[in-house]
Specification:
The chain has no helices and twelve strands. By secondary structure, it is mainly beta. The protein has one domain: Sandwich (Jelly Rolls).
Amino acid sequence: MRIHNLYADDKGESHWRDIEVEWVETRNFSKMSKRLPAAGIIFRQTSGDYDLDWHPAPRRQYIINLDGGVKITASDGASREIGPGEVILVEDVHGKGHLSKSIGGKLRHSIFVPLE
């Protein structure tokens, strides 16, 4: 299972990388990761005309995309389209940040899971 990770380097430039979930337990036809820390849950609805200029993430958090899609561009120019069911760990809390734009003009629902 892959998690998209948007992070900032020491100079504040944001970049993409992938994180593979490490499975630590297998039980009842399932694989599970270790328990990860979290500080709550936020439900979000984003309009279909969403198009944000450069901004850093407000906090380290997982974003779980439920439906719709978002195109996120890192400050190094690399972009990814995140679709339904995909997970992002945003950690670019300093520097230039990233661009965020809706895909296809569709309403998007997502869940934020803050880590701090």
